[in-house]
Amino acid sequence: MTTELGLPTLRGAPSRAPGRPDDTRLVDGFGRVATDLRISLTDRCNLRCTYCMPAEGLDWMPRDEQLTDAELNRLIALAVREFGISELRFTGGEPLLRKGLENVLSAAAALEPRPDISLTTNGIGLARRADALAAAGVNRLNVSMDTLRAERFAEITRRDRLQDVLDGLAAAHAAGLRPVKINTVLLRGVNDDEAPDLLEFALEHGYQLRFIEQMPLDAQHGWRRSEMITAGEILERLEERFVLTESDEDRGGAPAEKFLVERRLDGTNIGTAGPEVVGVIASVTRPFCGSCDRTRLTADGQVRTCLFATGETDLRAMLRGGATDAEIADTWRAAMWGKKAGHGIDDPGFLQPARPMSAIGG
């Protein structure tokens, strides 16, 4: 069932990959176990971020190629009940554009054992949806926001919608979707001077900030490592205003390195509740592949073992071809057994995935 992108999908995967242990979970050849399923609900987005897609957008996936709610619910239930998946993160594109989103979320929340459910959104439309998302079973969410300045927001996203995002953050917090996390990508010469201001904003409003190194997942394939703001640079900018201490909390498979924000350099306290936390996701310069616990499902039903994988395994064809749950589970397990040790960004032969981030899911 596994194919390189652009090649036909092959049927007839073995029930157990050679050497794979008799284990119902999603184990790989390096001893890692996937417990976190990232689910892309759509490749569509209502922003046009410069580091993600061109101004005119992309050719969106035809609706009939997208998994139906029933197909999606079946695969999610299989992952939770058969593989022991305990965390579900719904992504896009922009997941709020998925029709019937709350129905999919409610079905996932009704599973036993009940998984932890989170959602990553750009925040457009979140203000009017936050209560419904909480009622449907979302525990927490991440909102992508790269600047606090309206003109910069319009420059980066090609849309004048910053206030909508700010309103969405406030509504999510009020709805109890906590912690509300902010995902920020710093771009050299564009918004890299805002790191301390963004952290100050997050601390003041009770949000948690996560800086993410820009990754080679843009549709234009214009990413250059030399132009990327590194984790080291991010921390240097934050330390211009704050005192940071690396957290001794066990990171597990979490992508973010956590740092305690104890006080400002002028000596004033951050808050009465004690140190706050800021995270840095350094996928490029400080890869965490050795502890990766994720498996990925695209909106058109392809399993990806890694964000940067160049091959996929087609579960949609199995669903629509009458495969049993057992057959689908065996194929999914076989795919994960073949997961590579790391993403290989530093390898001379590294190839950027053909799909952009908007089509893979975060």
Explain what you see.
The protein has 362 residues and is an alpha/beta fold. It has one domain (2-360): Aldolase class I (TIM Barrel), CATH 3.20.20. It contains ten helices and 15 strands.
Summed up, what is this model?
This protein has helices spanning 69-83, 101-109, 126-136, 150-157, 162-174, 195-205, 231-238, 316-320, 325-337, 357-360; strands at 2-4, 26-27, 33-34, 36-40, 87-91, 116-121, 140-144, 180-184, 208-212, 242-246, 257-264, 276-281, 294-297, 302-304, 311-314. With 362 residues, the protein is an alpha/beta fold. It has a single domain, classed as TIM Barrel (Alpha-Beta Barrel).
Per-chain topology:
Elements: E1 2-4, E2 26-27, E3 33-34, E4 36-40, H1 69-83, E5 87-91, H2 101-109, E6 116-121, H3 126-136, E7 140-144, H4 150-157, H5 162-174, E8 180-184, H6 195-205, E9 208-212, H7 231-238, E10 242-246, E11 257-264, E12 276-281, E13 294-297, E14 302-304, E15 311-314, H8 316-320, H9 325-337, H10 357-360
Parallel strand pairs: 4-5, 4-13, 5-6, 6-7, 7-8, 8-9, 9-12
Antiparallel strand pairs: 1-15, 2-3, 10-11, 11-12, 13-14, 14-15
